[in-house]
Amino acid sequence: MTLAEHRMQQQQQQRRMFTAALLALVFLLAAVSTTEAGKKEKPEKKAKKSDCGEWQWSVCVPTSGDCGLGTREGTRTGAECKQTTKTQKCKIPCNWKKQFGAECKYQFQAWGECDLNTALKTRTGNLKRALHNADCQKTVTISKPCGKLTKPKPQESKKKKKEGKKQEKMLD
Is residue 59 within 8 Å of 96, Cβ to Cβ? Predict the structure, then answer.
């Protein structure tokens, strides 16, 4: 076999391989598009319609104390509902301001200046999060005592005090 014949054979073999690869690609694309078309033709499952209402949850009641683990009761209505009441575990974070509802979380601003008439300072909180559709106020205001109100004392420098004591000792 001559070199030219050998090259021709190699070229023919390469053409066959290229044709086979091209046919495989076409076959693969046809299979994928048929699969996708088959998915579209399938009738969609009808969603189950239920006459059960949405769950309505009570507030979380701590097992002990005023925060930590507890339970809440849920109810819903509907003639064909298998379950119309249930109890769920819940948790009330101990660092929340419970005076506004244990399930209402507020983002508070910095404390304001002390009101000298009432000796209180206040700050406002905006609702950040309400658990389980709790009925929370959008904004709340809290107050606390200002603390000790002291009149500023005129301070003598320590150096002057020491000098005064030294002079007293010298006079004695």
Answer: no
The mean-pLDDT minimum among 14-23, 130-139, 153-162 falls in: 153-162
Cα end-to-end distance, the chain, whole Å: 133
**Cα 30 to the center of its chain, rounded Å:** 46
* CA distance linking residue 154 with residue 148, whole number of Å: 18
The amino acid at residue 80 is: E
H or E element at residue 71? strand 68-75
User: pTM of the entire structure?
Assistant: 0.37
For 51, how many CA atoms within 13 A lie in the half-sphere containing its CB? 5
* Spatial CB neighbours of 116, under 8 Å, sequence gap ≥ 6: 149
Average pLDDT over residues 139-163: 67
